[in-house]
Amino acid sequence: MDDERTIFARKFKFEDPEEAFKQARRRITNNALRRQQKSLDLSDYGLAELPTEIGALSALTHLDLSGNRLARLPSAIGDLKNLRSLNLSRNTLSLLPIEFWNLVGLRTLHLNNNQIVELPPTLEQLTGLEYLDLSNNELSVLPSQIGQLTKLQRLHLSDNHLARLPATVGQLKKLVELHADENEITELPEEVFQLPGLMILSFSANQIRLLPDAIGQLQKLSFLDIESNKIRDLPSNVGNLGLLERLHASNNALTSLPAELGKLGRLTSLFLASNNLETLPTEIGLLQNLRTLDLRSNKLRQLIPNIGKLEYLTRLNMDGNFLERLPEEVSGLTRLRRFTLRSNKLTEIPSTLSTLPILELLDLENNALEQLPKALGHARSLGKVTPRPTNSKLKSNFGLYLSRNPLPHPYPSLIAPGQPLATLNVLAWLRDELDTNTLPTQPPSSGGRKGNPPEPTTEAGPSFKVVQGKFDLAPALELQEFDKATQQALLQRLKKQSALLQNANLKVGNQHPLLVRTINEYVLSLAKPLDEIDVVEIWSVGTSVLAQALAFERQEAHRTISEPLEPEHLALLIEVSRLHGGFVLGFPAGLELTARSDAARLAPEVAHLIERPTSDILASLSKQRRLFSERARGLADALDAGLLSTSWDAARVGHAAYVTVRNLLIEAGRTVLAANNLTSTVAGGLVFSAAVQQSGLTLEAALQLSEFIRANTAEILSFVAPFPELRAWVEWMINHFDEEEKRDG
């Protein structure tokens, strides 16, 4: 709750509603009115009341009041006759004044994330509306007059309490998008299927039992989302949706699929998880453009041979079915990267899997395998680290997973070290390149104190120490002399422009969450007097700011980001990044960090090996509230965002991330060393964790450290692989946690 209150408090420019009101009135009367402004942004001011002077802004065309405390609006709002765009999202509005509906010039209206209970019939007066967002309110019914908004192109109704839509929705002939997710709708009105231009139809998380045959009339539909309903059948007319690219129908009650599904030649994503499917139509093999097929948690007993015709398929998820074998034809999936088959009944797998040239993940956990084909050893792509995707929900990005199978000796010993060694061991064994005599036949004894390897050297940059029971960033060394007057001026400018950038980000949070996270963390790192600035933290987070700016500048050439920023927004981001550069280099410590980073640049082949595990570890670190301080988690989050946005070398973000993870692992090892010195043997989890607690961690954080190391063992081992001294230190640390787990088990 404390974290939530802090976040909530930070979002307002003015904590005092009276001060917010005074400042808003000043902007309206002294600036907007005098200059006859066409645009006014009062978002996140902290306003509980809107000054009535707002009605005097007759030239206004764009007004942003989002993210305030407004529970009502003054009647004067209706005087803004030239208003074209109005954003009232993220307030506490429940009713709107009758004068509000005089805004007949509106083209875009955001009313999402309020407490609106009903809309009056006078809604029909807004005949020029093209975009209307009513999502996340308390609506239980829509007035039939909504059908009068005949220019409407996008309508958002998600997260309300609607049980049905009025038939007049069928009059919205220009509608392109209709979103009504997370309501209580039981059936779709036939009139919806009379909207000729509809491209996106989303009704997930409702109570719909029947998808009408009329769905086939939506000839321009490209995205259909009916997930989490109670639909038993897809009508055959779904095959008429010739432009459909994405079909989401997971978590329904489907028992079969129509053969006409094979007509959807443009389909790229098909999600059918958590249904009751027992068979697949052979026509699925006709979906030549399919990239992703999700069939997990069904009742499938076989995979049709035609699956091999999906030559563009990159992801196939068959977890949680009843498969006993796979067809040889899977060799046709030449672009397959991820194939997950956990929790089936497989007794064997075909040798043709080894011919898949770019397969990087094959998950066979929890099956009935008693042997593996020798040819699988030549599937060398399984053992290669590939660039980390921006959104991966899989347990790992690469490797061969075999645990919980009745495989004979030596497989248990081969997979015992965990990933990535498990994959490399198995592949080498299948290729007759591994001498099993070198493998331990029994777990190492834990009857005595372990010898400590030499402690690796920490590197200049973010380091850690235990503070108040958690890992926190260690304070930077005392600041040397610097030009305080210049630095103070730069700091004030940085704070001002960063706050403006933070507010601008609120409008693009859904499109660019990485940018939002980075700038939020940067603003926090600036929130100190000049004499208390932590140069290491500023330098580290600032590398991510620089990386974000670089990514957005290059996006047209490299297509690194899908949605561009508005020119003013991008200019602000670039200004902040350049101000940061000047500011951090004004400190001797900042200059030294930059010089060391450039001098210690990792070799490209090493950077390639550790790039993805570094990002994975940082992403996991940022979620450990009980183990790491908010500052430490924020730094990890910002660095991870920088890595995801641009290349490893951009703005030194890769080096900062490497140093952060390296120094963290060294400090974690010191903590384990402290416990090792307190107990002559690792006598179970509670004893061990109590010993760790003596190093300064709370008992809760000590247990979390154990979980953090276990959950990220594969990534940690991948990270330390190129550094022998660090690898020895980390393997020694992991060995302690392995013994603890075996004793507790």
Summarize this structure briefly.
42% of the residues are buried. Helix content is 33%, strand content 8%. It has 745 residues and is an alpha/beta fold.
Structure, explained:
This protein is α/β, with parallel strands linked by helices. A 16-stranded parallel sheet has the order 1-2-3-4-5-6-7-8-9-10-11-12-13-14-15-16. Mean pLDDT is 82; it is low at 1-10, 385-396, 440-450, 556-561, 678-687 and 740-745. It is flat. The longest helix has 26 residues, at 653-678. 33% of the residues lie in helices and 8% in strands.
Distance N to C terminus: 35 Å
Structural shape? flat
How big is the Rg?
Answer: 29 Å
Please give the share of residues in helix. 25-40%
Strand arrangement, major sheet: 1-2-3-4-5-6-7-8-9-10-11-12-13-14-15-16
Number of helices: 17
Mean pLDDT: 82
Q: Please indicate the percent range of residues in DSSP E strands (runs of 2 or more).
A: 5-15%
- Model regions low in confidence, pLDDT < 50 over at least 5 residues: 1-10, 385-396, 440-450, 556-561, 678-687, 740-745
* Alpha-beta content class: alpha/beta
Number of strands: 18
What's the helix and strand layout?
Elements: H1 2-10, H2 17-35, E1 39-41, E2 62-64, E3 85-87, E4 108-110, E5 131-133, E6 154-156, E7 177-179, E8 200-202, E9 223-225, E10 246-248, E11 269-271, E12 292-294, E13 315-317, E14 338-340, E15 361-363, E16 399-401, H3 411-415, H4 421-430, E17 464-467, E18 470-473, H5 484-505, H6 513-526, H7 535-553, H8 555-558, H9 567-584, H10 588-599, H11 604-621, H12 630-645, H13 653-678, H14 685-693, H15 699-711, H16 713-720, H17 724-744
Helix pairs in contact: 5-6, 5-9, 6-7, 6-12, 7-9, 7-12, 11-12, 11-13, 11-16, 12-13, 13-14, 13-17, 14-15, 16-17
